[in-house]
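Sample entry (182 residues):
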Amino acid sequence: MSDDKQLRDMAERLALILAQGGMQKTTARVMTSLLFSQQETMTAADLCEELQISSGAVSGAVKQLIQSGLLERVPAPGSRRDHYRFPDGAWARLMSQQNQLLSTMSEVAERGLAAAGGPSTLAGRRLAEMEDFYAFILRELTPLIDRWRTNFTAKRELATTEECHRASPQGARSNSNTGLKK
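Predicted structure, serialized as tokens:
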């Protein structure tokens, strides 16, 4: 099986999983098409052709994905068409956007707990658990995303440094002179 076929199959598999989780199927297919693409950008026409869907379906999916931060419109010199790509940092940005939802859920549970008469009532016990859970997740999520960003940036910088070192004639000579293998 060719690499392109394997990528396309994996994209469709993830799209199906996302659709089962509640994302609209076409939106999931557009997102995964860009995520698994070996191209830097794709146009709406590219997406229509690859996915065999209408331009209206692509347009609706693109609008949703741009709003959620899972797709961005990028300039393409010399082209009059809009070009789209899956942006760097999309996963962290998506999780960071959840902070507002987490905050709202925590506040609603806190108010509900007060309205229920405190944690000693049946509803109060459930709402106390909800409030505690969302408050905990809200406290932990931001530092967790920050640690991931720091870690990911360090990995990317190390990979870039190693790549530059391997590509430079000086780096290649120094490796051969010292017997080091990269």
